[in-house]
Amino acid sequence: MLELFNTIFSLLLEMAPYLLLGFFIAGFLHILIPSDKIYHHLSGNSLSSIIKAAIFGVPLPICSCGVIPVSAYIRKEGAGKGATVSFLSSTPTSGVDSVLATYSLMGPVYAIIRPIAAFFSGILSGSITALLDKKTNGEKIKNKPTPANNCVECSSAVNRNENIFSKVKSALAYGFDELLEDTGKLLLIGVVIGGLISFLVPEGFIQSYLGNPWLAYPFMLLISIPMYICATGSIPIAASLIMEGMAPGAALIFLIAGPATNTTTIAFITGKLGKKYTFAYIGSIIITAILFGLLLDLSWSYFGYDLAAKDAGMSMFPYWLKLSAAILLLVLIARIYLKPLFTKKINVEELHNMYKQIKVEDMSCNHCVNSIKECLQEVDGVEDIKISLDDKEVFVKGNFDTDSVISAIANAGYSPEIIKD
């Protein structure tokens, strides 16, 4: 047990400094990139909008769960289907946090090739989608809402008139509270699974069976496409598989296909865009993953082992700094998951008589809660808002127009349904 713990903790030590730096940068990206700029550049269905969607998506630290309501919203804002799919494809595969964490465990080549693959995936999937739907070229959504104050995950939650200290506070709150809350659990699960792989898999087993790309590629695609895993949480698993002898390209396939596809994303694309776009999306991810996997394996064979999963990044920080970062990261994650113990839980039964009750089935994370709450705060007449994520219910109190409340939630990318008026 002690050896297993040491293996898992060693993975955490290598990733922690980069993760903290990544969350810090993510927080400032969140307040520096205004939503109105994003929506303005993604309108229509041209190649330029598809490329811009991929450019916007690659650095944003949004997971597979959080990217869905954002994609739904930019679609409502007038983004073409091609741009929407491009953003949906490129965003969860990469991000400033995952790039730094990738470098920490897998070296510079993986850290470089991963965002390039995400960018390529976005352009490929968006272009195929646009070709399948030529009629939407230049499409504009009627009654387009103003994006400036709407609260989607990638929009700035900070008022431009706030002082610098308020903006810094908001950035840190986003990076080390909101974002960490939605990725911390998956991150720890990924570290534990990676440690278990290194510890339990017999020496030579993976090398014998998954060292062959012809076996490893389809196997990794088979488990990656339906699986939900964040871009950062996939790193320790992939690193452990490589160290056990799996083909490097197969690990890259897992890093690309794992975060980009899952059953929820597939259901979203099918429901919002249609089946043919779902097949185009999945096909684009598969093509991208195999193409870059082959490219990496060919380069690996030509240049040698030192090209990729090497501990070059691991020696950058002294042990005391890595240990401090790991402890701080664990404390921040523990704080988030212990917070409910000290927070009064919403009594749903008590709210039924005083609040209008709205069901939001596709509200699935803390980003969703904050987005819905902030959007409703802009509705005239709303006095109080309480949200139960566990029950997927929103309670609104005040003298307001019900249609305005429903529209606000819908414009944020969700599917509200009145269950008590």
Compact description:
By secondary structure, the protein is mainly alpha-helical.
Our measurement of the CA-to-CA distance between the termini, rounded to an integer number of angstroms, reads 55 Å
> Which residues form runs of ≥5 with pLDDT under 50?
136-160, 307-315
Strand count, sense and barrel status of the largest sheet are: 4 strands, antiparallel
Helix count equals 18
What integer value in Å does the Rg equal?
22 Å
Number of domains: 2
What's the order of the H and E elements?
HHHHHHHHHHHHHHHHEHEEHE
Report the strand count: 4
Please provide a written account of the structure.
- The chain is mainly α and 421 residues long.
- It folds into two domains: 2-327, no CATH class; 348-420, Alpha-Beta Plaits, CATH 3.30.70.
- It has helices at 2-32, 35-42, 47-57, 67-76, 81-90, 96-106, 108-132, 164-200, 205-210, 213-224, 234-243, 248-260, 263-272, 275-303, 319-338, 348-351, 366-376, 402-411, and strands at residues 356-360, 382-388, 393-398, 416-420.
- The protein is globular, with a radius of gyration of 22 Å.
Essential attributes:
globular; 421 residues; Alpha-Beta Plaits; 4-stranded antiparallel β-sheet; mainly alpha
